[in-house]
Design goal:
By secondary structure, the protein is α/β, with parallel strands linked by helices. The protein has 12 helices and 23 strands. Helix content is about 35%, strand content about 25%. The structure holds MU-OXO-diiron. MU-OXO-diiron (FEO) binds next to helix 2.
Length: about 400
């Protein structure tokens, strides 16, 4: 439990036991489930935490409120990493009410079988709740990341409680840069909903925000323009970094050798940054994040069952699902008797908007030979010349 401002306390928890966040994302540095208490004439708790940390969370609340009791639990997001302890809260504080919107209460009924009667306070979009000096304004943010999501602005402390927005992987005691794990979190979890994030950013632009209190990751208090700018870049599907990401699938090392040659050639041509990813061996969420981060992408795959290697298939589907667009794309394929990977990869992305395809397609027939090196050089030059 710690102070964020004179009246706002942090009462969240760190999770270092979790194997996979949301059942799929590796979190080597754990995860934080954030929750806050605003102490005023009335006391509001902002969201709960994962089911396994209910006792620790209630203890943190107790330390924050002392002899008093919370009046409200504001439920901004119903995903169980934040809503799982609603029942426990209601049992612990029989005089408290739950604050949410119509969709929140429908989900509370669905998840926990609760009809709250007079224990619910239903708010509308831009509706307010006065705690005394602190007036909370609720701004609906549907699909950032579920339909019931709302964020909350506290005018007194100029704090935005941003739900999943501005969250990241990693517990709060993890010593790591914000952007890397925030980007992987954003594209993994919210990437599909760029338009909705843009809508939220527009609403936030009208507010004087000094503190961002997300549901995961650190409370942001300095240089907020940096975080807002990154969120704007990510949600508008623009590239953040000039450079080439080469994503590859290789079985016997021949396609990998071609990728390494391309990497060398791109560096020789002056490419500011080249990153490579072996899709079978690296974290898929990290690979997807890197594809969205850079302005150019090269897909390199062996031909497999008349299409592409399974990990490449998963990777491209992951990009499509998240609205991959506005990028330059090059293709490399390998096929010992009937190479079809390039055609398949291009077809998979045919509905993606605003992709600039490189004319130079590298086709490797089993092993890298002189003619392959010539094709790789041509692709490297074309990628370097393209400034789309
Ligand atoms: Fe952190 Fe969408 O839950």
């Amino acid at each position: 439990m710690r102070h964020i401002t004179d009246d706002i306390y942090y009462v969240g928890v760190n999770d270092h036991e979790l194997d996979l966040f949301e059942g799929q994302f590796e979190v080597p540095n754990g995860m934080a489930y954030n929750s806050y208490v605003i102490v005023d004439e009335k006391i509001a708790v902002m969201d709960s935490v994962d089911i396994r940390f209910g006792e620790e969370w209630l203890q943190n609340i107790k330390e924050a409120v002392g002899d008093r009791k919370p009046d409200y639990l504001v439920v901004q997001h119903m995903e169980p990493d934040h809503s799982a302890n609603i029942v426990k809260f209601l049992e612990t504080y029989p005089g408290a009410q739950i604050v949410g919107n119509a969709k929140t209460f429908q989900m509370i009924a669905n998840f926990y079988g609760l009809e709250l009667g007079d224990r619910k306070v239903t708010v509308m979009n831009n509706g307010t709740l006065s705690l005394g000096q602190h007036e909370l304004t609720f701004v609906f943010a549907p699909m950032v990341h579920w339909p019931e999501v709302m964020v909350t602005y506290d005018k007194k402390d100029k704090a935005l409680f941003s739900a999943d927005g501005f969250g990241k992987f990693g517990a709060l005691d993890a010593d790591e840069a914000w952007a890397c794990e925030a980007r992987r979190y954003y594209f993994g979890i919210v990437g599909k909903y760029g338009a909705q994030v843009q809508a939220l950013l527009k609403k936030a632009a009208d507010l004087d925000i000094r503190i961002i209190c997300p549901l995961h990751g650190p409370v942001l208090t300095e240089d907020l323009a940096y975080y807002l700018k990154l969120y704007h870049t990510w949600s508008s599907y623009e590239a953040e970094t000039e450079g080439v990401m080469i994503a590859y699938s290789s079985v016997y090392g021949n396609t990998k050798k071609a990728v390494e040659l391309l990497e060398d050639k791109l560096k020789e041509c002056g490419c500011p940054r080249v990153v490579t990813a072996d899709l079978a061996r690296e974290d898929m969420a990290e690979c997807i994040e890197d594809a969205f981060r850079h302005n150019k992408l090269v897909l390199a795959s062996i031909t497999y069952n008349g299409g592409v290697f399974p990990h490449m298939h998963t990777f491209i589907e992951g990009l499509k699902e998240r609205g991959f667009q506005n990028r330059t794309v090059g293709l490399m394929e390998n096929g010992s008797w009937a190479p079809t990977a390039a055609k398949t990869m291009k077809a998979m992305l045919e509905d993606s908007k605003n992709l600039t395809w490189m004319e130079s397609v590298v086709t490797i027939k089993s092993g890298v030979k002189e003619d392959t090196a010539v094709q790789i050089e041509a692709l490297a030059r074309e990628l370097q010349l393209d400034n789309a």
